[in-house]
Amino acid sequence: MQVRESFSAGLAHFRSSGGNAEPFYHACIDYLVPGQQRLIDQDRRLVDLLAPRVPAAQQADHQAMQALRERLDLGSGSLDEFRRAADQYRQAGRAGRAGFEAAAARFLDVLVNVLGARSHSLRHLTSTLLKDEDWQRIVDSTPEFTESEAAAFAAVSAAAPPGAAPEAMAAQPAAGGGPPRHGA
What we know:
By secondary structure, the protein is mainly α. It is about 70% helix and about 0% strand.
């Protein structure tokens, strides 16, 4: 969340004042693309573990899981579009900046308004049906991934314009059990 907020603040900064945005934008891309893919994959594993454990009679819960799948599909499509725009920007350099910034704004809109704005409607199930080993499977984290993510965060921090450092951004931890969620 902190890098997402940093990216949003940096986009606003560079769109209004200009300047060399490339180091910051590239650092944000390098953090957000794998990070968002990881979160989407985690939520898919979460639903895959929960669905067979929820009785068919609990239709509202199955509908909530289907709604989550649909939001994840939308998020995945948005991430793919952002990834393509990032690749084009890397190839085009400054000439591709305006197109990248427009794609980035669309991507952030989906993150905030589709994935991030939803409360976790399955929390009552995750707190009762999932065990520690389930969460370990869902998170699927490795020391190498954690190290890579920390280095990417540091790169964003080092390249951030004034007022957009990720460590200065508020992060809202998820309530309830399990790892921090991105709002799915």
